[in-house]
Amino acid sequence: MNLKNPKTLIPQAITVLSLVLVIAYFAYNAQVNMGNRGISFGYGFLGQEASFDIGFSLIDYDGSMSYARAFLVGLLNTLLVSAIGIFFATLIGVTVGIGRLSSNYLIAKTAEVYVEIFRNIPLLLQLFFWYYAALRALPLPENAINIFDISYLTVKGWYVPKFIWTNFLIFLSSIVASIVAIIFVAKYARKQREEIGKHVPVFSISFGILILFPLITFLIGGVTLNFEIPVLSQMTSTIFNFKGGVSIIPELISLALALSMYTATFIAENVRAGILGVTKGQKEAAASIGLTKGQVLKLVVMPQALRIIIPPTTNQYLNLTKNSSLAAAIAYPDIVLVFAGTALMQTGRAVEIISITMGTYLLISLSISTLMNWYNKSVAIKEK
Amino acid sequence: MNNLNILKPNKENLNTFILLGSFFIILSFLDILGSAFLEINITGFLPSGISYFSPLMIGFFGLHLIRIEYSGNRSLDKINKSLNSNNFNAILTLIIIFILIKYIPPMLNWFIFDADFAGSTKQDCTSGGACWVFVKVWIKRFMYGMYPDTEQWRINIAFLILFVSIGLIFLLPQKFKKYIIIYLLFIYPIIALNLISGGVFGLKWIETGAWGGLSLTLIVSAFALIFCFPVGMFLAMGRRSDLPAIKYCSIGFIELWRGVPLITVLFMSAVMFPMFLPDGTFMDKLMRVIIAITLFEAAYMAEVIRGGLQALPRGQYDAAKSLGMGYWRLHFLVILPQALKLVIPGIANTFLALVKDTPLIFVVGLLELAGMIGLAKTNPKWLGMAAEGYVFAGLVFWIICYAMSRYSQNLEKKLSTDR
After folding, report:
1. Distance from A128 to chain B by nearest Cα, in Å?
2. Could you tell me the residue ranges of all domains in chain A?
3. Is the pLDDT of residue B166 over 50?
4. Pairing verdict, β A162-166 and A246-248
5. Partners of residue B268 in chain A, C-beta under 8 Å
6. Residue B196 lies in a domain
7. How far apart are CA A359 and CA B96, in angstroms?
8. CA atoms within a 13 Å half-sphere pointing along the CA-CB vector of A148
9. CB-based burial of residue B128 (10 Å sphere; 0-12 exposed, 13-18 middle, 19+ buried)?
10. Residue A231, H or E segment
11. For residue A321, what is the nearest residue in chain B, using CA coordinates?
């Protein structure tokens, strides 16, 4: 392309120039406005004392800590609910997607009704329904729904046993070690298959490793695990509550429920499309060269179906993570509520705070999509 | 499994097996019906753990007895094929039927049979089901928000004109369609805006803060729909452009909006955007929200349209160029008409997502349907009505969205046969 050609140069120059002008105009106005209010642009406020409390936090936090710390709490809460949502959405989505293709009429119909109902109601309404209508109908702690005597469901949240580890780090490193070992086994198995055609049962070996390594740490590594089970205790003459264990707050439950049930419908459709996308001829060809049913599924159908399923499902994971920002509507302390809500209200630094919040989401989105693109490339058909 | 084969029917003893199997299936249904409605447990003599699963086990045994590959009896074969093809399917069938029996009647009772429809206060709801009186009393607020009662005809007329014009598109011959679409895109919005906000022709001025309810949902979605389409189109063309500056500006713009949640965009329009305007200028909140949603959805629209542009074979571009067409004529006369037709389902899905996103405008204090319900349920006279309100709103949105998705699916089918 010839850069000197005015036909290509002028439109570009106009675009860039107008963009620069608009940004400069906005920046100038922002400068003036902030000057009028006596605040100067800068991220120094992050180090100041936040002096507000957050109801639910994965790390130590209280009001005397900095805004940066509050931001971290919000970010972790966002990541927590997204991770839970992604896990359950995948679980439900894959089940429902396969269910829609079932030969059993009832199952196929139930799956279809599920998809049609939950896909066509705005996520926010579903969230409100779970939070304000469904979970508010749960009993008070004294009449809690008892789940096998170890966990209790109440209107104040879900109380589950707390894991008390000793030498947790050793346990964790054993898991890491077993994952590394499995990767080596898989590599070795592939090499064996490609070079001498020998089949190594990778799955059973990996399963064994995954059980064996952590087990050893329990036996000789000094790792122990105890449970602290929540117990009902009387606070005052009329107020009861559970003590001990871990309390999962209703906000988290309803958010995870709404996110996973809503996103699952889209994942289900992706899974269905993926499985339908593998032509019958592929299965028949695989069967005709003597592969068993399991092998057909594992070696022929799934690799091809995954290639169709993964890109749109990545998008759904991203959507779920972004939709977790609806947390602000039910006061789950995620990054939007904590940072773009409370912190903004206190400091009045709209530009800085909104830019940090948006930048964070942008970073999360870009990193998930990079990761998934990388994975997608590794499973794509390699044409020579 | 050989020993189980005596329990397998064959053609000779089929009738005995069907009789026996039906008996067990009916028994299992009686068991579950008894425990669901009459509080009788006919297997109560068994230990509680077994008794709980007894309908499942009895029914499973019954289904096992009637399972035969081919019986010649059409309805039996149909049942076996679609519900009872193997043990696993039989169990799943029973579980689903039992769940339906157990949970659907109470839901229906709450929803309609035990529900209250008459009356005008919360105290009129006595029967224990849903209190639809709540929706009845608040329906005007749910539909029109805080818009004055005496002026609501204006909203009705605006929507009536819209529906009539959309109806005309389908009724009138092809020739006139073009004009109606142009009218809908350029003239109608101005008419509707003036009609609803007033201030002209002696109509009372009604500030946007009073707008609300379902009509606001529709207004926001309609305006965002109209505007996001052209913006998205130009962004898509920009992203495919040969000019690097335009290309990278478009990519940056699209990825920026696609990477952040709508809620932060709305926050931005509410608290950050006023900082960017000269001191003292005021921009209407609703307008800011519509601009924010438009830009946000335009980024998604751009990606959908880009898909269509990429799907067109290169020959189309080359052929148009060889006729001496320039960039704009090439796109508007040759490429876009084909590309847009290819991605109509994707466009419909983006519109659907937009409609489902509109409730989010509550974060800036605009109360559309979901927001009005949030307001109504905190009214001291109507506490505890959250379930009714959200079920009602869910139903309204579901009808709108389901109709839209059905329409887009039909369109997809129609277009796929065309090609």
Report:
1. 7
2. 6-38, 67-161+229-379
3. yes
4. unpaired
5. 354, 358
6. no
7. 46
8. 4
9. exposed
10. strand A231-234
11. B261
Class of domain A67-161+229-379: mainly alpha
Pair of tokens at residue A44:
């120094």
Q: Are residues B105 and B241 in the same domain?
A: no
Do B109 and B137 share a structural domain? no
CB contact under 8 A, A11 and B82: no
Tell me which of A80-84, A180-184, B58-62 is least confident: B58-62
Phi, psi of A145 (to 5 degrees): -75, 120
Whether A353 and A345 have beta carbons less than 8 Å apart is answered as: no
**pTM > 0.80:** yes
Indicate whether B53 and B137 sit together in one domain.
no
CB contact under 8 A, B261 and A323: yes
Verify that B143 and B94 share a domain, yes or no.
no
Task: Examine the domain organization and report whether B362 and B409 are in the same domain.
Answer: yes
**ipTM tops the 0.90 cut:** no
Which of A141-150, A189-198, A307-316, B154-163 has the least mean pLDDT?
Answer: A141-150
Give domain status of residue B124, yes or no.
no
Determine the residue of chain B that is closest to A361 in CA distance. Answer: B260
CATH code of B375's domain: 1.10.3720.10
Whether B154 maps to a domain, the answer reads no
* Position A279, amino acid: T
Structural domain for B262, as ranges = 133-147+206-418
Helix/strand/coil for A336 = helix
Q: Looking at the complex, report in whole angstroms how far the Cα of residue B328 sits from the nearest Cα belonging to chain A.
A: 13
Which residues, including other chains, have CB under 8 Å from residue A156's CB and lie 6 or more apart? A140, A141, A241, A247, A250
- The domain tally of chain B equals 2
Which tokens hold the place of B191?
């008419």
> Does B187 fall in a domain?
no
Distance of CA B242 to the CA centre of its chain: 38
Q: How many CB atoms lie within 10 A of CB A44?
A: 10
